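Fold it.
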Amino acid sequence: MKRIKRRKKRREIIRKTILYIIISIGGILAMLPFLWMLSTSLKDSSVVFQIPPQWIPERFAWENYPNAIKAIPFIRYTFNSAFITVMKMIGEVFTAALVAYGFARFRFPGRRILFLILLATIMIPGEITLIPVFIMFKQIGWIDSFKPLIVPAFFGGSAVFIFFLRQYFASIPKELEEAARIDGCSSFQIFYKIFLPISKPALATIAIWSFQGSWNDLLGPLIYLNSLDKFTLQIGLTMYQSLNKVEWGQLMAASLLVLLPVLILFFSAQKYFTEGIKLTGIKG
């Protein structure tokens, strides 16, 4: 018996060791693009494509960071990106939660069919509806404004967000809702006094996804915005590339600065993010 236990223990140790090695290698490979971006942001343009490549430059070109900020209206574009992202995040989180609450708690004719139609829209690429939506916004005079990037978020949010929140709301005990109704709460009061406060992990997950998607969006602002003073950071990053030359050091420095808000948000809300992902699949 002791020999069998020892063998099992050895096999378990070997299995975990191999697993940790594979995970570590995968983590290092995933970090390589970020490390290369960081390295390039501190290099002179003359040594960016040097063979063999230098991961640690001989001279750190710290001037790439202030030069990157001065090369374009970086502060203005940061404000534009932040305004669009925050407003869109608020709209998507609130409206997705409201719609998900309706699908999870209300019983009405055609509820399942409507939910299946909603899920089917996930499979429709955004490029298919791009031209009709652009024509619609052009006819109502919204081109070259932030409205096409913000207003749609307040009319239902994303189908993926609704699906995840619906799964989370369905796992909340009905006894809480019944007790609230006995106390005289309306459906909307139950929604914002009970469901929203106890759904922080799921809401934080949706907020992170919304922030990341909106902050990194290039196609939307590129299509709807024409004025230089209304551009976002993602459009601004393309300005470091000219027909004859690309300022790789400045481009990587600016890209790293643009990436920082997403990293800060993710790590600050990592606890809620992982908990939300875990809990959204508890109950269908």
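The chain has two domains: 2-40, 68-279.
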